[in-house]
Automatic annotation (TrEMBL):
This protein's name: Methylated-DNA--[protein]-cysteine S-methyltransferase
GO biological process, one term: DNA repair
Organism: Conchiformibius steedae
Keywords: DNA damage, Methyltransferase, Transferase
Pfam families noted in UniProt: DNA_binding_1, Methyltransf_1N
Residue ranges annotated for the Methylguanine DNA methyltransferase ribonuclease-like domain, each copy included: 89-165
Amino acid sequence: MDILNLPDPERILPERWQAYGAWLSRQANPSLAYGDHPHISADTLPDLKNDFHACTGMDLDDYIRLRRLSFLLSRSQSHSQYRAELAAGAMDSPFGQMLAICSEKGVCMLKFIAQKGVESELLAVQREKQALFGWRETPVMAQLRDELARYFQGSLREFGVALDLVGNDTQREAWHAMTTIPYGETRGYAQLAAQLDKSNATRHIAAAAGQNKTAIIVPCHRVNGHDHISSFAAELRQLEQRSGNTAAAPAPPAESTSSSILPPPTGLGWRKS
């Protein structure tokens, strides 16, 4: 899937679906509800989806999600109250294309575009930063692109690009704890909670792992039990293991930190047990 080069259904779909293809091509932000789509019915939808995949190599659901993302990422939202702009960029990976959102301070978001929920996370970034998006290269974006390429080649163990994360203090503390998990190793929720000296925080850490908007750099794939949330977690761990690192290790000492890119926030809401 390539968000920058989406197929034109009007030109590709067979004659049976030409009316629908023409309609879909004109929709900048198509509805996720097929009941809102003309020219199809519940009976014909399965055939449409089969033909769409055969003609484009994409699932229709994914195409619609990417069209909606493309709309959000366009500068054409001139009616918006936002005047600031965040940079958007498409990143290559062995597991499919990734979407990066960067401010001047650092990376705000990095997600595989095939993941569901990217639109809601993009909207959360937009609300927090009060900004539109524009496809452009910036120094932060260029550094992220270079470091991601080296990570996937197996030559980068620790990211140096700055982060400008969107989340509350509780989430940020959990994300900071995840950045201390060394490359090729894993930790459990309870281990991370103990590292934070907050044994009652395991549920908060699990929730933060599922709400992580910055894949790989905040390595929630190194948190045991995250596989049911992200289908990419196992693949990323295998990539790191193939580079000659162990898959698991004891929890590090409480004072140990292996990342300086995300300083721990203050004034957190969690209580120590």
